[in-house]
# Entry
Amino acid sequence: MSDTTKTNFLTRHKKFFVRVFIFYLIGIIGGIYFFHSPNLSKDYLQKYEKEHSIYKEISRNANYFKFLQRPHLYKGSPEELEKFNFALNYEKNPDYLREKNRIFYYILWFKTLDFFIIIFMVFHFGWQPLLNYIHTYQRNILNKQNEIDNRIRQSNEEIVEAKNLYQTLPTVIKEREYYKESFLAQRLSEIEKQNQQALAQIEFLLETRKQEAILHCINEVKKQLINESIKKAEEELSASETPERLAQTVEKFNFLITMIS
Amino acid sequence: MQTIKEREDYFQRKENEIEKKIQKAKEFRDEYKNSLEKAQKSLDSRIDNTIRNAYIQQRALIEQEQKKAHEQLILFRNELEKQFCMNNTEIQTHVETLTEKIIQCLIQQKRIF
# Structure
């Protein structure tokens, strides 16, 4: 504990310490006033000093307590028995009993005083921490109770939320089905469009091929006609022409063929 | 709650209740998720199959149409060959006319084509 803390502690509890000190002082004074001291008084010792010293010596002997417990059964020497009887009679002396009672009450008084002082100290310094501890203990219990209540509420909300979510499952599935069906319809429509385009292309290709075939036939006929005509012309010209003219005609014919080709 | 044990038992009981509820909520959520995934998979599978079938049909249709067009073309060519096939007598008249023109051209040096 540091000096500052000690000073603060003493300052805070100054009144209490003063009160306790006064109370303890009054108690001490009262105890001394009523019961004097824990020892035998001077008057008594002056009167019974010798007997008391003998008694003290006898009472130190362990056999004396055996004698006190069962005097009629104790077997000892006559001197010893005489001593023990002396001590027994001394203890029954009214003055000794008065002194013994006074010492007993003295000790009882101071023990009681110390007990109360300790009780005061304990209550003063221990009561508030005890209350704090009890308060904290109760607060912890209440906090735990509150926490449990909150968690119960949260779990209830969670389960209700989960149930509600689960109940929306058919609706969500239907929505997804709807979206997927629309997607499927769109894709099927695209495929149908592709089909139409493919059919149109096939039709177009067929028509083109037909036109090509017609042109091919026409060209074939033309070629046949030309071939036949040229063949016949050659025959006619070879029969009617002279070699010189034929050579000229062949030249022209070659030119003609070149032109035709 | 008169004793500490009773209080502890009470808190323990409440904790167990909370755990059960949380577990139940988790089960609901898992069930929801699994059902949704299952439905989604089934839906996707059905749509994929439908689209695949549509493409298969498209391919079959195109093949059928191509085959039909090919057959039509063959028929058309046959018809054309029949139509454009001339016999010698029919072509001879045209050949004679053309021969005369060729000869005239050769004599006059004119182009006929």
Notes: Chain B has a mean pLDDT of 87.
